[in-house]
Amino acid sequence: MKRSNDLFPSLFDDFFGRDWFNAGVSAQPTMPAVNLKEKDDNFEVELAAPGMNKNDFKIELDNNLLTISCEKEEAHEEGEGQYARREFNYRSFQRSFTLPNTIESDKINAKYVDGVLKLTIPKKEEAKKRTSRQIAIS
User: Fold this and answer.
1) From the centroid of its chain, how far is CA 114?
2) pLDDT of residue 74
3) DSSP letter for each residue of 35-86
4) Which pLDDT value is given to residue 26?
5) Backbone dihedral region of 41: left (phi > 0), alpha (psi from -120 to 50 degrees) or beta?
6) How much is the pLDDT for 45?
7) What is the pLDDT of residue 59?
8) Residue 32: predicted pLDDT
9) How many helices and strands (H and E) does the chain possess?
10) Consecutive 10-residue runs of the chain (138 residues): their mean pLDDT?
11) Phi then psi dihedrals of residue 16, to 5 deg
12) Which of 23, 35, 70, 96 is deepest in the core (most CB within 10 A)?
């Protein structure tokens, strides 16, 4: 038996298990995985958020702070009349990123395909990587 300052919750958790009331659903919110890529002409942000709809997302740019948030509420009922089981699910998250001054903020593009939200953030012309060239000596 474990000893702790809050003995009752510990015994309760040990007997029933932490997932007894969650019925297999995690009570901890999960933060979606994010990939950030820098290419010659742009930055790409890929955010894994399966099961969402593109209308669930809110993308804001305030000065150089890019904020991606999402909220989704679902309700499932089984049985007729007086329900035998009824579940509610509410998922939300918010991720923020500070963007450099070298981006074209008015040309940011977002797509949601196959559970991945992908943002393309173009760079300003002066920030793009230029190819090297040889300079002739006169």
Assistant:
1) 14
2) 72
3) EEEE-SSEEEEEEE-TT--GGGEEEEEETTEEEEEEEEEEEEEESSSS-SEE
4) 46
5) alpha
6) 95
7) 96
8) 87
9) 1, 7
10) 49 48 50 90 93 91 93 69 66 90 94 95 86 84
11) -90, -25
12) 70
Question: What residue type is 91 in one-letter code?
Answer: R
Phi, then psi, of 14 in degrees rounded to 5: -65, -40
Whose structure tokens read 């001054």? 101
Q: How deeply is 116 buried, as exposed, middle or buried, from its count of CB atoms within 10 A (0-12, 13-18, 19+)? A: middle
Helix (H) or strand (E) holding 9: helix 7-16
Place of tokens 């903020």: 105
Q: What's the one-letter identity of residue 131?
A: T
Please state the separation of Cα 46 from the chain's center in Å. 9
pTM above 0.85, yes or no: no
